[in-house]
Amino acid sequence: MSDTRLQDHLTDPFAKAYPETREFWEAAERDELLLKSCEDCHQPHWYPRVVCPHCGSPATIWVKASGRGTVYSYSRVERADPPYTLAYVRLEEGPTLITNIIDSDWPSVRIDASVQAVFRRTQEGRKMPFFKVVDRAD
């Protein structure tokens, strides 16, 4: 990552407000999804925390996630302009996160649909993960 891009990312108000998530945002700039995982109980968790929500250990580390998951639940917001799809995605690693489904035809979104993380830049400047529906063969 160029120094200019890293500097732009670090001035993003959201990323700047939570310095403990710096590694997450730096990985997002490389289109990589990171999760926090516990070194004691070895369980990943979402959202990133400095203390493991499973066992209370402060020994948490960043680990690279596959970016693959399945739709657990979703809702289409038709009254917005443009309409969008919010979803709970269960990652292969276990944690469930709330996200937007993008780059997918609305009828292809369904419970248990396979999804893959994709990264898009926000208006504030940082890249963040979204998900798109993929075929199982992808």
From TrEMBL:
It comes from the Bacteria. Residues 62-120 form the ChsH2 C-terminal OB-fold domain. Signal peptide: none annotated. Gene3D superfamilies: 6.10.30.10. SUPFAM superfamilies: Nucleic acid-binding proteins. InterPro entries: ChsH2_C, ChsH2_Znr, NA-bd_OB-fold, Thioester_dehydratase-like. Residues 25-59 form the ChsH2 rubredoxin-like zinc ribbon domain. This is DNA-binding protein.
